[in-house]
Design goal:
Calcineurin-like_PHP; 17 strands; alpha/beta; Ap4A_hydrolase; phosphatase activity; five-stranded mixed beta sheet; seven-stranded mixed beta sheet; single chain; Purple Acid Phosphatase, chain A, domain 2
């Protein structure tokens, strides 16, 4: 008799069992992924509410012109001291310690729901541009693009295009040298000084661009040039935040972004010896800055100091508009609201407080001050008091009729005040910044 044969193997059943186990694992993984994805997608819109558009759609060289603040971010009239406030901060220029000191002095509270807006130029010149951007992101703050953000982002785009991260790569060309050899001595001295300043500015912008992370650059690139805040109260009307300024008579949607980021003055025809809003607007004009019929093509925006401060022109025209509204009762019997602009950029002038224009660049980059304009609700039962003495020593360029402005504003449930802290000039590379 031979040996009994062993029972036959059953590989088929083993394969079926293994396949079933794998299928079960995959099915469980798919269910978990589906549930997680649903939760994640529900969170994403909340994360993106601070941006007018997804950051990955932002352009380094073609900024978004106009965005609007959500109505829920506006302070509530007569809400009292526990109600959220709107805090607009001037040019920080990389001075993180000054920013933190200002936030502490103003009593910023994320838990209360305070909303922060920057007037641009958060970066450059100072020692910690990246830190300032991070702080803004932490607070869920809003900002507009300033001329320095624009320079930094364009510098990065140029460095990427050339494939060079060398911040000292720019040199004079033969054409530059030839141009300097022409003309009179004084003219060439001015040209050389201007060109030196330009090259120095580009070098600084490249260094700042290189110091920022990809996420920080993307956040800056997503900032609009104009931020329409909305109707804060009947006293202020529609509030708009920009970096440099606006040209009167041009709708927000049609403003030139480079002008908005860089303007300081408006140049009138050489025959004009003095400025008068009446000379710009006829009796038939509505003075509505959004009307196409109201245009001042003879007013040339300038980055320099010649001409009239754009804010003075804007303020005078808004006052004139309100006078006409009070006489005519506005369109269809409804008075047209004023437009108040909050801006930075003009450090040389410093604080400039007008009825319908607040300039809050107080030269922090050069050791001056960092300033915030705070819109805060009043208490319904609170008696009207004197304007806040938080900064009684601040030297402001103020309209003559502004002494009782906070009292008048408070009657509508929202008042404003200025808060400032000192900035210490920092030294970078052996020079003051």
């Amino acid at each position: 008799m031979g040996r009994p044969e062993p029972p036959p193997a059953r590989p088929q059943r083993r394969r079926i069992t293994t396949a079933g186990a794998v299928f079960t694992i995959l099915l469980l993984a798919l269910l978990c992924y589906t549930r997680y994805s649903e939760k994640l997608l529900s969170v994403v819109p909340t994360i993106m509410t601070q941006d007018t558009q997804p950051q990955f759609h932002a352009s380094l060289t073609k900024p978004t012109l106009l965005a609007s603040l959500p109505p829920s971010a506006l302070p509530k009239p007569h809400g009292g001291p526990k109600s959220p406030r709107l805090i607009i901060i001037g040019d920080v220029h990389g001075q993180l310690s000054a920013l933190d000191a200002l936030l502490a002095k103003v009593g910023y509270s994320g838990a209360r729901g305070d909303v922060v807006i920057f007037t641009g130029d958060m970066v450059n010149k100072g020692p910690d541009s990246g830190g300032v951007v991070d702080r803004a992101v932490e607070m869920g703050a809003y900002s507009v693009r300033g001329n320095h953000e624009d320079r930094v982002l364009r510098a990065w785009d140029e460095m990427q295009a050339k494939g060079s991260m060398d911040t000292d790569s720019e040199t004079e060309t033969e054409t530059d040298v030839a141009e300097e050899a022409e003309g009179d001595v004084e003219t060439e001295k001015k040209k050389h000084k201007h060109k030196h300043k330009h090259h120095k500015g580009k070098k600084e912008a490249r260094k700042t661009a290189k110091s920022l992370t990809s996420a920080q650059r993307s956040w800056l690139a997503a900032r609009p040039v104009i931020l329409r805040v909305g109707a804060v109260s009947p006293y202020y009307g529609d509030v708009v935040v920009v970096h440099g300024g606006l040209v009167p008579g041009i709708p927000l949607e049609k403003q030139d972004p480079q002008v908005v980021m860089n303007i300081r003055t408006l140049i009138t025809p050489s025959s004009s010896t003095s400025f008068s809003p009446e000379s710009l607007v006829s009796d038939n004009d509505s003075l509505d800055s959004s009307a196409d019929s109201f245009s001042h093509s003879h007013l040339k925006p300038s980055e320099g100091r010649e001409g009239h401060p754009w804010s003075k022109v804007w303020n005078a025209l808004e006052k004139e508009k309100q006078k006409k509204n009070s006489k005519k009762g506005g369109r269809h019997g409804t008075p047209e609201p004023p437009t108040t602009v909050v801006y930075g950029h003009d450090a040389k002038t410093g604080l400039s407080v007008r009825r319908y224009a607040f300039g809050i660049d107080s030269n922090c980059a050069r050791g001056g001050e960092l300033t915030a304009l705070v819109f805060e609700p009043t208490s319904a039962s609170a008696a009207m008091s004197n304007p806040s003495d938080t900064n009684t020593n601040i030297n402001t360029n103020k309209d003559e009729d502004e002494d009782d402005s906070e009292l008048a504003a408070a009657r509508h449930g929202i008042k404003h005040r200025l808060v400032s802290v000192s900035c210490r000039a920092q030294r970078i590379g052996g020079r003051h910044v």
